[in-house]
Amino acid sequence: MAVDPRQLEKCALETDIRALLGLDRDEDEYGAQVGEVASLSRWYRGFGLLCVGALTHLQESGPPAREAQCYLLLLLGSILFVDKSKDRVSAVVNLFVKRPDMLGEYAWGAGALAYLYRELGIASRAEAKGVAGCLTLLQCWIYDHFPTLRPSRLEPRELEQGQAGAFRWRGTAPRSSKKRDAQMLAYYRQAIDSLTPQSVCWTPYGQSPHLTVRRTLYQDLLRFAEIVEPYDPTRCLRQLGYVQSVSYPPKRPLVVRRPASTLGYSLSYQSVYDSWWNNLGAHSVHLDLYSTPIRCRPWEFAEDYMGLYIRHSHRY
To answer: What string of pLDDT tens digits covers the 316 residues of the chain?
Structure first.
């Protein structure tokens, strides 16, 4: 059964980063009442829900369910699904907080990953001047995998029970200035150019993280609302403790538009079916058939891999 493109897939979830697939349209869940639309219109000004409207509503006495909805709008819009509107939250987020009893069944981690993938694609355009998405996820991923790129003042902290891994990197942000920003840009460019295989932490989450989170091996499409992005763990096998080999050709979009400008950037993939998610065995990587465990160096790769990598990563 085809998935409604306006919906976030609903699944039985156990961990944070996992794929999104399959949820039939539910009119009771997504059908807005006249009063609700009128309430939302107070916040909407053409580009999304004004955060100040949600904050004002939180300060007012009202039904607990609506207060929870306002809080979740701010939480999701300012952390997981951040855009470049500064003071607004995408109206699509409201569709996913209308039923508090359903929140535990949404794959928020996978949705944030799909959203971030799309925003990184947009940020790669020649005229891009910024990046959106869950940058906390991206920043902490960089700190975990590239120790030499961590700020010298920032040391990992011990996590308390139940805390998210991002808490290891809590620190005070330095003051920004044009001169300092230019210096930091030059510094990080040099640091990236100086990276070696030995300076990368290939498996910061353990030698076999896929044994703990089976959804790590899922291989197909991730989705958040109308955003659909491919997810392929065979392109980062060394992070799973396996020798990097040549992966299959990536899943190609049916329609693609990647102009130099960030405006008009769009990708369209084939329809997503809930059976893909439900049948994890048919839509996941079987590592032992695909590659071999790393025996010596954590950056090991197959003989034919590096030639292919150079051809695709150094075209000019």
So the answer is: 333 333 333 332 223 343 222 223 333 322 333 344 444 444 454 556 666 666 666 556 667 777 777 788 888 888 888 888 777 777 777 777 777 777 787 788 888 899 999 999 999 999 998 899 999 889 889 999 999 898 876 777 888 887 788 888 876 566 667 778 888 889 999 999 999 999 999 998 888 888 888 888 888 888 888 888 888 889 889 999 999 998 888 888 888 888 898 888 988 887 665 566 667 777 888 888 778 998 889 999 998 898 888 888 877 6
For the entire predicted model, the pTM comes to 0.78
CA–CA distance, 252 with 221 (Å, rounded to integer): 11
